[in-house]
Backbone:
């Protein structure tokens, strides 16, 4: 697979699996129009393909297939303890898409799911209905792009656009769209919404080269962020996860400096900082697949079911990066 440094493309899928009950859904039809040459396979339920045994996540990553499905049951979940809530009492997340086009070595998805194929839940209207039910009880802060990179898929299925349109009409809803993509152009036609936060994950060049090889470069991400900020969007900077690599202090110092030499600090919504962390079972699953990444085999410590760097090292890393960020951003606007 070639190293994709831009998101201005539509990934080709050789096969598209379609649940029989969503064949005539409008979003299904729109997605299928983009892939006229793909082999279409009707299935009863997406898990018949996605959850089958003896799949090899790393191998499938080389030729991902697309699965179009209906999400049933619960669609909105309380935010995980390892995720930042940015001061919001009612923090939730939802997943319109499972899995990602990128292949970052540290991504928990490779240990969370049995398959690397892409699942798109086309029944977006049911997600909206569930969020409305929550909004009837209290305000909601909703992360919509944790189990995928939603913006990177926008030219295939406009989930991000629909979430923005939905949020615009609901003052007590705040959504965060997190991404490494440079596909901002796909949503630039929207007027900025006060209750939508666009969050970019940033990494040093060496981390991108070694552990995020299919993602856009740091400079390209910063260019997209600057454009979004100039257009009036609320933009969040995320240095997360910080990785313990050779010369990590110099790498992250340079990354922070380049970020704030490109982005006007007074227009940044806030900054999040965190070290590598992963649920115990996910990391064990990744190691079982025979991952070739040295990152995965670091002797992490397990605390409360989560693997991360030894506590003293983790605190040192966060303290260092926070110190660099505080040269530009007020401490009240930094989240750990």
Residues:
């Amino acid at each position: 697979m070639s190293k994709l440094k831009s998101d201005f493309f539509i990934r080709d899928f050789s096969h598209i699996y379609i649940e029989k009950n969503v064949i005539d859904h409008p979003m299904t039809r729109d997605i299928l129009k983009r892939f006229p040459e793909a082999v279409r396979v009707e299935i009863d339920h997406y898990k018949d393909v996605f959850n089958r045994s003896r799949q090899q996540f790393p191998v499938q990553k080389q030729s991902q297939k697309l699965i179009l499905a209906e999400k049933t049951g619960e669609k909105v979940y309380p935010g995980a303890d390892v995720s930042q809530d940015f001061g919001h009492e009612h923090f939730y997340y939802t997943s319109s898409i499972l899995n990602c086009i990128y292949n970052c070595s540290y991504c928990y998805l490779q240990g969370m799911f049995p398959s690397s194929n892409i699942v798109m839940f086309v029944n977006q209207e049911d997600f909206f209905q569930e969020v409305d039910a929550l909004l009837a009880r209290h305000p909601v802060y909703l992360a919509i792009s944790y189990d995928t990179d939603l913006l990177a898929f926008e030219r295939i299925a406009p989930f991000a656009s629909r979430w923005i349109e939905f949020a615009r009409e609901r003052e007590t809803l705040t959504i965060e769209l997190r991404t490494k993509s440079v596909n901002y152009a796909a949503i630039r036609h929207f007027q900025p919404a006060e209750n939508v936060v666009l969050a970019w994950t940033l990494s040093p060049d060496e981390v991108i080269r070694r552990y995020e090889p299919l993602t856009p470069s740091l400079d390209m991400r910063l260019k997209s962020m600057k454009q979004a900020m100039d257009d009036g969007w609320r933009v969040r900077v995320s240095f997360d996860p910080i990785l313990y690599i050779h010369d990590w202090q110099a790498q992250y110092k340079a990354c922070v400096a380049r970020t704030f030499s490109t982005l006007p600090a007074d227009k940044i919504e806030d900054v999040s900082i965190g070290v590598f962390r992963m649920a115990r079972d996910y990391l064990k699953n990744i190691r079982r697949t025979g991952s070739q990444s040295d990152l995965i085999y670091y002797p992490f410590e397990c605390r409360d079911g989560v693997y991360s760097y030894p506590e003293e090292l983790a605190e040192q890393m966060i303290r260092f990066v926070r110190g660099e960020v505080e040269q530009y951003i007020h401490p009240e606007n930094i989240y750990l």
Observations:
- Residues 72-115+123-335 form a domain with the pyruvate-formate lyase- activating enzyme fold (CATH 3.80.30.30).
- DSSP finds eleven helices and 16 strands in the chain.
- Residues 248-262 form the longest helix (15 residues).
- The longest strand covers residues 234-242.
